[in-house]
Design a protein that fits this description.
By secondary structure, the chain is mainly alpha-helical. The protein contains five helices and no strands.
Amino acid sequence: MEKNPHFAESETPYFVGRAVAALAADPDVAGKTGKVLSSWELAREYGITDVDGRRPDWGAYVDRTIAGVLERGGPKDADELALVLSRYFQLVLDPRRLDFTRAMAASLGLPEPDPYPG
């Protein structure tokens, strides 16, 4: 964590395993077919925690970090740029996150995201 403090916000493999086990035990799991699911969303839905009792939420952490990057005018280095771009391309197809992706696009000089790609 000395080299990359972001790892302190991440989850263990046990957390991911617990999320997968909870998903597999869900009698309505078919309703999630074809969706992209994150461990932090499943943890909230199923009430699971990591081995240390935490409920890591990487998505919220990254969004807070990116909001800070955008507030100060954009990425300061290649690592921040990679973080912002990777999250941008994850969120660009989610119409619920359109305001956030528009702010990211403006900060990075990218074209405005199309909420209705087709």
